[in-house]
Sequence to fold (334 residues):
Amino acid sequence: MNRVVAFAPGRVNLIGEHTDYTGGLAMPMAIHLGTSVSFTASDSTEIVLTSEREGSPALVAVDVDDPASLEPRWARYVAGVVAEIRPARGGTGAVSTTLPVGAGLSSSAALEVAIALALGFDGSPHELAHACQRAEQRASGVPCGLMDQLASAGGLAGHALLLDFETEHVTGVRLPDGLEVVAVHSGQERTLVGSAYAERRASCERAAELVGPLRCASLADVEAISDRTIRRRAHHIVTENHRVLAMVAAFAADDAALAGEILDEGHRSLRDDFEVSTPVVDALVARLRATPGVHGARLTGAGFGGCAVALCEPGALDIGWTLRAVHGASVIDS
Ligand code: GLA
Fold:
């Protein structure tokens, strides 16, 4: 029986938060921290995966029909992928990861993408990302967008990715020389992400009912929304799309100071308009921002805890993870 080993990177989102499910723009990059899954198929009808991080294995029938009910919880992500790709045979395998779990660096997307490849998924990076997005939604019940899975499946070494969620077009954006990308964990585990995420998404959908697709809305359209909460949520989305384009221009001009300002503005928007930051993350961002050599910093990922991302001069920060942009997920041994 052949053993297959697949690796899927996590991602850090540089700018463009909560824009994916509104047909907007984002600029994540696939990172060298990621998840490996080794798998050997057998004649069994069950998939058994162990994880060095988890006390109990995931036992998933190949015909599983209710991924969200499984225990332990991490088995739900395995089951979500199995339910999407319906492997013909079961087997046994092992998961290992260098990603912090639940920290805003897409550990769940990396797990899904690596499992799908290890179980024999055969398709384009876009097809892989869509299958794994559906798997995540089945497993967690959270109506997540496509960004995490697309960044993990479609990464480009040395590049951030300009993702357009209207066309699903992926464009590599070269990272400026001498600009370091550092993620630092706030130490705060993310809480209430599921219900608050769904609530934010519903607010954006309400805003789009009022003013049309937020991708095309102007700031004047947004100002005309009478409900204060919906208006602020829409204000974040519209200004965040502008910030993604401004970041592409700042990188093209090798303008690290401008790139940093865009991060700072992005954080204020997430904190004040979208209200997905926390006092602990705000304090971390302020501390990073006050460190010499740091150009800018912000919350990264869905929010409610997790990591901040900073752009800085090489060596300016001696905490967190200095991230390298890597190629997307692949089978590394078979
Ligand atoms: C989570 C979701 C993504 C995206 C981000 C916020 O990571 O899985 O689809 O919406 O939050 O930008």
User: Anything to note?
Assistant: The chain has nine helices and twelve strands. The pocket of alpha-D-galactopyranose is lined by residues 13, 17-18, 20-21, 144-145, 147-148, 301-302 (CB under 6 Å).
